[in-house]
User: Which sequence fits this backbone?
């Protein structure tokens, strides 16, 4: 349903930026007749983006992985909620920033305040774009699990699960809890927030991903196939429907 957001995430963001800029530019020619139409149009666009981001974040978590044979690795899909949320932040931030600058031009606001807030909106939009266009979340590699966040990452080698019967389980639809027997092997980089044994499952089914982690933790001989499309297809076809992974 939302697969297209990953494929067209840059055009989506550029389109949102164009809408925000168009709204800002037309501010100089607004009339009493045009103003309500612009507000209604911008409101509808923002409402669609908000509802899409909310639904995707709350309900859309397919049992899917992205094969990256060049790494090699399996990545979780790009989160549609992040893409649509970034588009929403772009339209709102551009319009609000332009409004503050317009107030400064008309003398209704100080230029220092206008520049400060406009700069803040630029930073926030850039932050959202980095989240939407970057590759974050869980990455399964032949040597372990990498959980990538915006400010840091955690790497958990498969050996950290030695002797653990159930290395992963879905703590909630949004996260997976990992049980490690050798925490000293876990490596943390940057300012990665949260517990090192909790990884996010924002963009994929948490039960499915926990099962895949369980599978590879107990089968070292199967890890060489990680990253291949055939292995990805096998995982999804056999366990994408929620069947138990033993």
Assistant:
């Amino acid at each position: 349903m939302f697969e297209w957001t990953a494929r067209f995430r840059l055009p989506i963001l550029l389109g949102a930026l164009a809408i925000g800029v168009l709204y800002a530019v037309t501010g100089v020619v607004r009339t009493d007749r045009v103003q309500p139409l612009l507000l209604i149009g911008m409101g509808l666009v923002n409402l669609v983006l908000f509802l899409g981001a909310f639904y995707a974040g709350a309900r859309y978590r397919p049992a899917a992985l992205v094969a990256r044979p060049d790494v090699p690795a399996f990545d979780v899909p790009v989160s549609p909620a992040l893409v649509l949320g970034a588009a929403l932040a772009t339209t709102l931030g551009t319009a609000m920033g332009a409004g503050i600058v317009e107030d400064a031009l008309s003398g209704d606001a100080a230029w220092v305040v206008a520049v400060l807030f406009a700069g803040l909106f630029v930073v926030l939009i850039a932050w959202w774009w980095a989240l939407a266009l970057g590759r974050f979340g869980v990455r399964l590699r032949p040597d372990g699990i990498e959980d990538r966040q915006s400010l840091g990452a955690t790497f958990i080698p498969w050996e950290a699960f030695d002797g653990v019967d159930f290395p992963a389980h879905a703590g909630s639809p949004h996260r997976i809890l990992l049980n490690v027997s050798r925490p000293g092997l876990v490596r943390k980089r940057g300012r990665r927030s949260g517990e090192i044994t909790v990884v996010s499952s924002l963009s994929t089914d948490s039960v499915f991903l926990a099962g895949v982690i369980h599978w590879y933790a107990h089968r070292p001989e199967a890890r060489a196939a990680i990253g291949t499309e055939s292995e990805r297809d096998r995982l999804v076809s056999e366990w994408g429907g929620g069947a138990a992974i033993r």
